[in-house]
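Researcher: Re-running this chain for the archive, since the previous output was lost when a drive failed. Same request as before.
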Amino acid sequence: PMPRAEIIFDEEALGITRDEVLTQLREGDPPIALAAAGPGGVFVNPQTLEPGQERIIARRIKEIVFQQ
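Model: Regenerated structure tokens:
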């Protein structure tokens, strides 16, 4: 097992699916690849991040889900 954060999206409330969020993250600047988790979540693996990159991920997710 490895430590990781799981973010679960309420797709109905947000008006965007997890898969749409993942696509926009991959196609954005910078491109971000996260692993799908369950029906509406994603995993963030801190072992693959450099210091400060978690803030970039959080900012991009916020931009994506609140642009809807």
